[in-house]
Design a protein that fits this description.
The complex is a heterodimer. By secondary structure, chain A is an alpha+beta fold. Chain A is built from 9 helices and 12 strands. In chain B, helix 5 packs antiparallel against helix 6. Classes of the chains: A alpha+beta, B alpha+beta.
């Protein structure tokens, strides 16, 4: 793989998409990683020898997946409208969520995860509490009343999102409304003190369920993926700061699962891997003096 | 080299009037001897690698592995494989690529003339598992192949063009043939201008080994134990020196 010249970098040689190579210098491709590993760490005089390439490929991808889960901080975002079904289907490459926000009136409002159940499956029951079964002997299901009440807006919430802004501003502290919806005398329940819509993530169903106040609103999901790029090997890349770590990870994984490798060699490979991950995380954390300065400027601010 | 090897063999055999080795017999024994030595090169090469790992080998002129590698590489051939059906291709052979293969070193895959990747050999017992693997299923960048009889099957199936698959392999040495034309005083006269003439393909320094090997075969052929033993002792001594 050769370096690309600046014209190709900036313009992709006039081939769409023009921005294909922008920022690409930060990354090393999976193909390069496997190639370099086979050249430099595998062979007659190396610790790793006579291993199938697919094993190296497997460990390389597993290493990259692990990095994507926490170390990379490569957060993807997707904005969709939530319609009356109050669902947001998770993206095809979704692994875990970082933040869910409501985008309204040109303002991003981070949403909180509802601690109560928001959706349930319901079995059809007879008057004698028996279940009914279909032709395949599976129990008949129906939309649960919980889901119905959530979507039609009748579900009571322990959050403040049933309170309008005017309610919150105009209520007296001494009435029942304040006690039940905003905060009792003994103080606000901070866990539920949020006026924005709430959500729960149904991982198995692959959807985010919102409460009714999210209907017809814009939702932004920030999430992480595993970096496998939908199975297209040619698109998988790793930040160069983690390149050495990936080699160490592959080496350790192979030595660790190989019969007859001395324990001290496995331990050395393990330490190598761990140290390189730590180094790369520190490098990637970008603790710039300039950023710290911006934060610390508020240190001596007078609170009026 | 073939003529000097034959002359040496005949000189040893004739010394005690053990018998006569006809050109046809010589050619048969020469072929067998060359194959024996050719095969040994791979074992020797492996032996050298083990010695290198044990720090028993040096660099520069002491790098014996390099010598073996060079000899083996003289038999290296790169050629497109002939398509049998879709993603199935014939292994190299006299009929398809012009030479039989001793071992396949690499199978290179391309599409539309653009190189994509080296296909990795996968055993038939693993290929189904590999194809079902989400992370490591053969892909355009990382193809794989299995071997069945005289054919290889390339995965993924998208490699299915007539010129999509090429192989770099080590061929067998060509059969040596000591050719002659005129019979002079009852003896055949060496003539290397014949169209079917073929010298040994091994390096000159293998001449002694070839003589020893041919003597062993010749000793068995003419039922002369001394000749066989002489060849055997010679070979053992040479091996010891190596």
């Amino acid at each position: 793989m050769a370096y690309i010249d600046q014209k190709k970098y900036y313009t992709n040689d006039a081939v769409a998409p023009k921005d294909l190579n922008w920022g690409s210098y930060q990354y090393v491709s999976l193909a390069d990683i496997v190639n370099n590993f086979l050249l430099m760490y595998d062979g007659n005089h190396s610790l790793v020898n006579n291993e199938k390439r697919y094993k190296i490929l497997f460990h390389a991808k597993r290493g990259i997946q692990e990095l994507n889960y926490d170390a990379f901080k490569e957060i993807k975002s997707l904005q969709l409208t939530v319609y009356s079904d109050l669902r947001f289907v998770l993206p095809s490459d979704y692994v875990n969520w970082v933040r869910v926000s409501l985008f309204k009136n040109n303002t991003i409002r981070p949403l909180v995860e509802n601690i109560q159940v928001q959706s349930a499956l319901s079995y059809v029951q007879t008057a004698t509490a028996d279940f009914t079964y279909n032709a395949d002997d599976n129990v008949n299901t129906q939309v649960s009343s919980l889901d119905t009440s959530r979507t039609d807006g009748s579900l009571n919430s322990i959050y403040l999102n049933q309170v309008t802004l005017s309610d919150a501003e105009n209520q007296s502290f001494d009435n029942n409304f304040y006690d039940t919806n905003i905060g009792a005398r003994y103080g606000l329940n901070t866990e539920t003190a949020n006026m924005n819509p709430t959500f729960t993530i149904d991982k198995k169903a692959g959807v985010i369920n919102f409460n009714s106040t999210m209907a017809n609103e814009q939702c932004i999901l920030e999430y992480i993926s595993d970096g496998m790029e939908g199975g297209d090997d040619s698109l998988i890349t790793v930040n160069k700061l983690f390149e050495d770590y990936v080699y160490a990870y592959i080496k350790y994984s192979i030595l660790n699962s190989k019969f007859g490798v001395q324990e001290y060699i496995v331990n050395r490979a393990k330490k190598d891997k761990t140290a390189l991950l730590r180094n790369a995380k520190i490098r990637l954390s970008n603790i710039h003096p300039g950023r710290l300065l911006m934060n610390m400027r508020g240190e001596n601010k007078w609170i009026k | 080299m073939i003529n000097s090897v034959r002359n040496t063999v005949l000189a040893i055999i004739n010394k005690n009037n053990y018998g006569y080795l006809s050109p046809n017999d010589f050619n048969l024994f020469a072929k067998q001897a060359q194959l024996d030595l050719f095969d040994e090169y791979f074992f020797q090469y492996n032996q050298q690698i083990n010695e290198e790992n044990a720090r028993l080998s040096g660099t520069g002129y002491a790098d014996l592995k390099k010598g073996y590698e060079e000899v083996i590489d003289t038999f290296s051939v790169t050629s497109n494989l002939t398509q049998s059906a879709a993603n199935i291709y014939f292994l190299p052979s006299d009929a398809t690529t012009g030479s039989d293969y001793y071992l396949i070193n690499e199978i290179r895959c391309s599409t539309g003339g653009v190189y994509k990747g080296i296909a990795e050999t996968v055993s038939n017992s693993k290929i189904t598992l590999l194809n079902n693997s989400l992370l490591t299923a053969p892909s355009i960048v990382y193809p794989a192949y299995t071997q069945e009889a005289d054919k290889v099957t390339i995965y993924p199936v998208s490699f299915n063009g007539a010129n999509d698959v090429a192989s770099q392999y080590i061929r067998y040495p060509k059969d040596p043939k000591w050719t002659f034309t005129t019979i002079l005083n009852g003896d055949p006269l060496f003539d290397q201008s014949q169209s079917d003439y073929q010298d040994f393909e091994l390096p000159i320094d293998d001449g002694n080994d070839l003589v020893s090997k041919i003597l062993q075969y010749a000793g068995i052929s003419i039922r002369e134990g001394d000749v066989f033993k002489f060849g055997q002792v010679e070979e053992q001594m040479q091996n010891k020196e190596q």
